[in-house]
Amino acid sequence: MNGFAPDALRVGYVPGVIVSKWGRVWTERFPDTPLELIAVPQADQESALREGGVDMCFVRLPVERDGMHAIPLYRESPVVVIPKDHPIALFEEVGLADLADERMQDAADIDALADTVALVAAVGGAAVMPHSLARLHHRRDLTFRHVSDAPDTQIALAWLVDNDTETVQEFVGIVRGRTARSSRSPAARPEAAAPQRKSKQPAPKKKPTAARTRTPRRRGR
């Protein structure tokens, strides 16, 4: 398929996803195959895959599954971002009912959350967003609290069915925690240590037995 790089693996990721740990493992196991980690706006996560901008992408569900594999990885809990001196900051967790009278800032556009957070800091109010994005846009004058009954979000690893190559499957294995020994590629497997042969130790020499000296018997006269 046009657009896919045969000699490199291009992996996209939407805001809030941290991919460095998987990148390190890939570099250790496949040093001869470059890995390109590409930041992808949330709005472009599906088109980046279908148009060949990336080979795989960490996406925030939902995405259109037609012709696409998607492995759910983990869920993101929702939080509300508020000024540090806000009364809600006194609680560890709140519900949506606790926010009913708050001035809620629009946080629907994931790619514009930096502006939303700045707006909360400037004029007050509150904004509900995934925990990972609240941490990404954290400011010292703001804090966040978990929202117990707001819908969570889910991160998945997606790639096209037509691009289900061995290289793609190796990356899937790394994300799923597959060890180097269980890798499909022989290049990623550590060389088995050759069994050490026990060297034959020479048999210990027997200590020579000292010759006994016989004292001649004296003959009687």
TrEMBL record:
Listed Low complexity bias regions: 180-196
Transmembrane portions of the chain: none
InterPro entries: LysR_subst-bd (IPR005119)
Residue ranges occupied by any LysR substrate-binding domain in the UniProt entry: 18-104
Gene Ontology molecular function: any one: DNA binding
Keywords recorded for this protein, A-Z: Activator, DNA-binding, Transcription, Transcription regulation
Record-linked Pfam families: LysR_substrate
Highest taxon listed in the record's lineage: Bacteria
Gene Ontology, cellular component aspect: protein-DNA complex
Family the entry assigns: Belongs to the LysR transcriptional regulatory family.
Protein name: LysR substrate binding domain-containing protein
Provenance organism: Nocardia pseudobrasiliensis
